[in-house]
Amino acid sequence: MKRPLNPGRIVAWAVLIILLIVTLFPFYWMLRTALSNNTQLAGHPSSLLPVETTLGAFKRVLGLSTIEEAQAQGGSGASVNFWLYLRNSLIVATITTVCQVFFSAMAAYAFARLRWPGRDKVFALFLAALMVPPIFTTLPNFVLIKNLGLLNSFAGIILPGAFMTPFAIFFLRQFFLGISRELEEAAMIDGAGHARLFFGMIIPMSAAPIATLAILTYINSWNDYFWPLLVGQQENVRVLTVALGVFRSQTPQGGPDWAGLMAATLIAALPMIILFLAFAKRITNSIGFSGIK
Amino acid sequence: MTAATNAPPDTARSHGEQAPKPAKRRRLGDLKVAMIFLAPATLGFVVFYIWPTLRGAYLSFTEYSLLEAPKFNGLDNYERMIHDSFFWNALGVTVEYVVINIGLQTVLAVAIAMLMYRLTKSITVRAAILLPYLVANVVVALVWYWMLDFQVGIVNQGLTWLGIDPIAFFGDSNWAIPTVAGINVWRHMGYTALLVFAGLQTIPSYVYEAAEVDGAGEMKTFWRITLPLLRPVLVMVLVVTMIGSFQVFDTIAVTTQGGPINSTRVIYYYIFERAFTRFDFGYASAMAMVLFAILAIVSLLQLRLLRAKESDLA
């Protein structure tokens, strides 16, 4: 497929490279700013390297520096503790992912491998839920969580997403459908029940798509903002995205703590970037397959 | 990642021919086991999807401040909406956002997909282009909020260097919506490009070979062959991205918060404000209902107008 370089191809490559630079530059700028001394930042706004390279901003947002140190480097001095928010995000994303993927796999098994009257109608109903815009169900869900007394609790943040999403069931059902019947029947003849079939055969055979779904679910859950903003404002359950919003609104109008803000955004983004780098191929290939067939 | 496509009929493939079984067993099949496997998902579905959908519809006909029980007030909320200039402003702003966002994003995504298709199959390039999509909206918004800062943002530094006056991207009411739309284009264009890229790979190569034999140029091939054959994929991409685009919230919540002078108060943000800062839940639910209806109509229209289901390859 190698074609000779002609002027058209050179221009095409140039455009693609420019697009890649536009895509990647903001990530570098985040890092460059986070490693700068905030008081000196305004003086060298276009310096491509960090201004007075320091880890001060990271220490500041992780609550590791004293108020005097923080203020000396242009922080607001308000106490922030991104360790806590990092922990909260980990708890929320992990529990959501484990529960959602497991329960959705169970449901997908019932829709793909079992035969019962009304199955396809029930499945269609589950899929129809994809059409309802989240804000429509969010308002009553908020009322429900509030009435249950679960505002500002992990349970309140996690519950609505813990049982299923229509997408997860749809995604796994597609894979479960493709597993051959013969294997299943052979196992059945050997006396395996449905629980053993599900845990011993279907799940191991679908390990790859289940892992892909789990990664995507984890990323979505980690990045979610709207729901945790509504039900998880208090510091002890505040997740990273919500904390970033709060940090940004606390920042003084005159001289915002840009270095601190960028350090905080990096802390929020880095786990997902690492997860992505580790599974780049799997995630990239899953797009297109899962979206449109 | 959320497009619901019609699953293939699975009866033949997954079930095979079964030996005849006693009548009752055949009628109910694996119902008992299925109920166990479905129990958790059904619980979540009923409690957090079905019930709130019904309740949301009901609340839209009530006055409800969260403090006392909802009071039925018929169509009052909907009447109020007709006279609420903020509501119409929010709709207008949202449409402006969607047009800029989807227009720019679709053109760029098709361009990137074509470039990747013709130049490289490298997984690294694809991964790099996807990277912004994996970072939270809030993070993306804040990074650009900093880069587009009026005084010390790198973009305005660049503009000054080029001899252009700095632009108040978030502070100027004419610029605010295009800015927010552009930021979200940056986040989503790679993802959309990969969807289009997957679509490009379904076009068989003999079509291109035939075009080449007939002497069609690069441009002609794109307009006459690639684009028409890509149409079913493009329609699905448009429906999915447009539904998402109507629901823009995060970016605005952490940057402009509806300002300056209401210029970025999109419908999602307005609903949020009504519900959670003024506790006007009935009215907010009614607006959510209208948004729901708009999204349904927009998707149906797109599918109809662009004849999504027919493929020109058939």
Automatic annotation (TrEMBL), chain A:
Biological process terms in GO annotation: transmembrane transport
UniProt KW keywords: Cell membrane, Membrane, Sugar transport, Transmembrane, Transmembrane helix, Transport
Topological type in the membrane: Multi-pass membrane protein
Residues that span the membrane, as ranges: 12-31, 90-111, 123-145, 157-176, 197-219, 258-280
Residue ranges of every copy of the ABC transmembrane type-1 domain listed in the record: 86-279
Subcellular location: Cell membrane
Major location category of this protein: membrane
Signal peptide (residue range): none
Superkingdom: Bacteria
Gene Ontology annotations for the cellular component aspect, listed alphabetically: plasma membrane
Pfam families named in the record: BPD_transp_1 (PF00528)
PROSITE patterns, per database record: ABC_TM1
InterPro entries: MetI-like, MetI-like_sf
Family of the protein in this entry: Belongs to the binding-protein-dependent transport system permease family.
Name of the protein in question: Carbohydrate ABC transporter permease
Organism the protein comes from: Kribbella sandramycini
TrEMBL record, chain B:
PANTHER family reported for this sequence: ABC TRANSPORTER PERMEASE PROTEIN, DIACETYLCHITOBIOSE UPTAKE SYSTEM PERMEASE PROTEIN NGCF
UniProt domain ABC transmembrane type-1: residue ranges: 91-302
Matches recorded under InterPro entries: ABC_transporter_permease, MetI-like, MetI-like_sf
Residues spanning the membrane: 31-51, 97-117, 129-147, 189-208, 229-249, 281-301
Species: Kribbella sandramycini
Localisation per UniProt entry: Cell membrane
CDD domains recorded: TM_PBP2
Membrane-related topology note: Multi-pass membrane protein
Gene Ontology BP annotations: transmembrane transport
An annotated GO cellular component: plasma membrane
Region span, Disordered: 1-24
Family: Belongs to the binding-protein-dependent transport system permease family.
UniProt name for this protein: Multiple sugar transport system permease protein
Top-level taxon in the UniProt lineage: Bacteria
Record key words, sorted: Cell membrane, Membrane, Sugar transport, Transmembrane, Transmembrane helix, Transport
Gene3D superfamilies in the cross-refs: MetI-like (1.10.3720.10)
Cited SUPFAM superfamilies: MetI-like
